[in-house]
Amino acid sequence: MNSEGGNEEAYRKLRWILDNADAGFFFITAPHRQQRQIADLHKSPRIACYDYSPAGEAYSYYALSDWADTHRDADALFVLNMQVALQQEKNLIDFNMSRDMLAQKDRAWFFFMSKDVEHRLSTFAHDIYSYVRMKVHFQAEEEKEPKEPEMQGSHDRLNVQKATAILEQYKELEARHMSLSLYDTPDNQLLSAAMTLDDIAELYKNCARYDDSLRLYDKVLQIRKKVLGDEHPDTATTYNNIAGIYDSQGAGVVCQELQGIASAWGDASEYKYC
Question: Please, what are the domains in the chain?
């Protein structure tokens, strides 16, 4: 099976950059779960990898700089899950303010992030783009071209089987994240857990396990409302995801109410349920 899926051009572009670039900033946009897969496919002694997701830490120039200094022999520095490190506006500003110091290290920095965080960077930290030499976008699974009609039924069944198998592997992780206290857990750890729970909730939705999906989305909403506030785009997206569950169950009135909240705090064109 082709592990590159519908992203052949993006992989070719990334390989070209790795083969030809010596220094600068490169932005790689990809979904949370996909970033590690991309990094693993390019695993090499010449590439060092730093992942913000496991610890859920906020961006710190000094931590990143110290890590880079311990990998002086690496030709490329992969920094994964910047969306975890840049959850709050302060983190975006810190990243932007450290651009000169990072650039002075004369290294090839590959910053991996979700598409929405790249958009927020362009809004709140646009100065950093003067150092960005190239951007590469990897499609999410839902953006890929659909299978031929005669194969779609078996393809859907395969997706459900695959999602069910992944959910089985995530059982302990789900339970651990669901048990986190909103008030005794560091904010960035909560936000990292919310991102994982959001992924698992999507898998439940794909398996038509809507009650389980809503249970997880409710925890994600609680976390994002507490840490990010009601008007943050990620909170609005969570409302929209919950609206999508109710829409799938035919609860149009509830769906419209939730979508109204999402649209009030985000770009209304992004919320298309109901």
Answer: 8-141 (3.40.50.300), 150-269 (1.25.40.10)
